[in-house]
Every structure is written in structure tokens, then in C-alpha cells.
Write a structure and sequence with these properties.
Length: 101
Amino acid sequence: MLKNPKVRNTAIGIGVAVLVPIAIIKLAPYVRPLARSAIKGGLIAIEKGREVLAELGESMDDLVAEVREDLRVEREHAAGEAEPARSGLIAEHQRDLGDRS
């Protein structure tokens, strides 16, 4: 009778349908603490991950602020070097205009 695949598969399905709820009821007292531990570990990992990301964000903010300050100083320095050269060109141009008059 169990040589027929349809009968055998149906018997297995019925057996699983009957035994799984019984197994869940019997194993629940043992599985629940394991599930709680797994969830607790996951929550701790998430909290730690958030802390690490917050520290990383603060470090990136500090780094960006430092780079912006470096750029500002470089631009001021470049503008300071360009100003005397520009002033010299203006004076030279004014002298040339004075020579033509």
C-alpha cells in the first residue's frame, strides 16, 4: 500500500500535519528562551551599530569642517597673492596712461 507514491506522500503529509503542532507544543518551553536570546542579541547588535555609525558621522563632520577650513585658508592665501600682482598691474597701467598724456 505504501509503495504507491501518492498514498505514501499523503501519509507523510498527514503525519507531518499531526506531529508538527504536537512538537511545537512540546518544544515551546525550550524554543522560547532561545528565541528571546536571539532577539536580545540582535537588539544589542543594532544598538551598538547605531553608536558606531553616530561616531563615524561625527568624525566625518569634523573631517569635512577641517577640509572646508583648509580650502578657505588656501583661497584667502591665493587671493592675497593675486591682490599685489593686480595692484602692480593697475599701477603699471596708470603709469602707461600717464606717459601717453
